[in-house]
Amino acid sequence: MAVKVIISGGGTGGHVFPAIAIADALKRIAPETEILFVGANGRMEMEKVPAAGYPIIGLDIQGINRQSFMKNIGLPFKLLKSFMKSRSIIKDFNPDVVVGVGGYASGPLLLAARKADIPYLIQEQNSYAGITNRWLGAKASKICVAFEGMERFFPQDRLLLTGNPVRADLVGTWKKRQDAIRYFGLNPDWATVLVTGGSLGALTLNTAIHCRLGELEDQMIQVIWQCGSAYYDSIGHINEKGVHIYPFLQRMDLAYAAADLIVSRAGAGTIAELCLTGKPVILVPSPNVAEDHQTKNAQTLVDKQAALLVSDADALGKLVPTIIDVIADEPWQFALGNRLGELAMRNADEAIALEVLKLAENKETIKRNNG
User: H-helix or E-strand containing 7?
Assistant: First the structure.
């Protein structure tokens, strides 16, 4: 009989793409596996998951709005409604295992799985676990993590260090450099900086680059710039020499391949991708995330001298000068990229998929132990 798996979570590319990578690995290892995704209505998973060939059901769920208390008034009702719908989804689909990858939909679905006595696996991407995952982790059958020292948040006997899954096409990007230069229409004699605020964009990065483009041009530095769809209308018209602006990069593999230096936010999924590139990186953590986890993610790399960190508050004054300093120092570039590459954890998707299949095989034993 085919194993049935629900994968829940999303909200950003940092959650969605690892979730799809886990699903793809399950299909490679056990092609008969039945997979259902559960996401949040209106979020990017509702588009990206069907495009990857998987069915998805949406919950009417949102996160806490930290800028407006009034916008949180309806949140308890949405949580209750999402939990009730999650219970119905589990009853109808009858999964052997549930996987939570983080994001708005993950909490209600994992809670419903726990109430239904279904084994569940948490894929904790960050170096600092959020409140929901810490609470749900107490009864999780397995917690797959990407950073060492996570026993401070979860039961140590259920932890497995796997790394974060990444998109398969990001492996071996160094082989694609010439293809990347042609794809983006780059000048092969100029240095190339990739600037990405993630799938949703980042106002601070966009502003810091926009206001000092002339300095980059003076240093013969060209930019591949993923600005985010929300910002493209306001800056997409820029037509300065060496500037290539996109709302979203469909070929991130080629963007990484072309880059001599990468400027990025510090989401855990992004960091996993960056480690695979082995390129020098400047991280500008987003301050608008729960428990400032992006700064904690970035600091783990800085402590290993594998990345540079410019705070969001300092980005306007320091980001472009730091870019110029790194580009001017090739030994520094090589050292940063080499140390970052040494931290790469490959085949995380298959390691997690194998754990999911083990849980499915042993689910009756797990139920007895949890009971």
Answer: strand 4-8
**pLDDT tens by residue, 78-102:** 888 999 999 999 999 999 999 999 8
**Helix ranges (DSSP H) in the chain:** 13-29, 45-51, 75-93, 106-115, 131-137, 177-184, 203-210, 213-218, 229-235, 252-258, 268-277, 293-302, 315-327, 330-342, 348-361, 363-370
* Backbone φ, ψ for residue 138 (5° rounding): -60, -30
Residue 370: what pLDDT?
57
pLDDT of residue 312: 95
Q: What are phi and psi of 171, to 5 degrees?
A: -80, 135
Query: How is residue 328 written in tokens?
Result: 């001017």
Q: Tell me the pLDDT tens digit for each residue of 62-72.
A: 666 555 555 66
Amino acid in the structure at residue 230? A
Torsion, Cα of 29, 112, 143, 156 (10° steps): -140
Residues of CATH 3.40.50.2000 domain(s) within the chain?
A: 4-164+346-370, 169-342
**Contact 264/274 with Cβ under 8 angstroms?**
yes
d(CA 66, CA 92): 35
Any idea what DSSP says for residue 176? Answer: G
Contact 312, 285 (CB under 8 A): yes
Mean pLDDT score of the chain? 90
Report the distance separating Cα 90 and Cα 120, nearest Å: 12
Q: How far apart are CA 272 and CA 166, in angstroms?
A: 7
Distance CA 366, CA 168 (A): 32
Question: CB of 125 within 8 A of CB of 14?
Answer: yes
Structure tokens at 145: 């993590």
pTM: 0.78
CATH number for the segment(s) 169-342: 3.40.50.2000
Identify the bridge partners of residue 58 per DSSP, sorted by sequence position. 39
What SS3 state is found at 309? Answer: strand
Q: Which fold has domain 4-164+346-370?
A: Rossmann fold (3.40.50)
Q: Which helix (H) or strand (E) holds 225?
A: strand 221-226
Closest CA to 280 of 170, 193, 185, 186: 193
